[in-house]
Amino acid sequence: MKHETYPYQSKLLTDREARGEARGVSEALLDVIEARGLQITEGQRRRIEDCGDPKQLRVWVKRAVVAPTVADIIG
Question: What percent of the chain has pLDDT over 90?
Fold first, then answer.
């Protein structure tokens, strides 16, 4: 039997994978911030957790390695 695929299934799967990836990267970012002992406000934490763009989050992770404050990380 041949399985049919539908375009919307691919879009749904892609969206779900991107959200999962973003969640993992945001957790890594928060881990780096915590490990460096940087002070983070609830608003900043929420902004990081709510960001659904893995590419943007990776940019922030790279900044988190050297930036002196969370404001410098997330701009």
Answer: 71
Give the orientation angle of helix 7-35 with respect to helix 42-50, to 10 degrees. Answer: 150
**Cα–Cα distance measured from residue 54 to residue 39, given in angstroms and rounded to the nearest whole number:** 23
Buried b / exposed e over 30-59, threshold 16 CB at 10 Å, is bebbeeeebebeeebeeebeebeebeebee
- The DSSP line for 5-39 is --HHHHHHHHHHHHHHHHHHHHHHHHHHHHHTT--
User: Structure tokens of 17?
Assistant: 């994978």
pLDDT tens per residue across span 12-38: 777 778 788 899 999 999 999 999 999
Q: What is the length of the chain?
A: 75
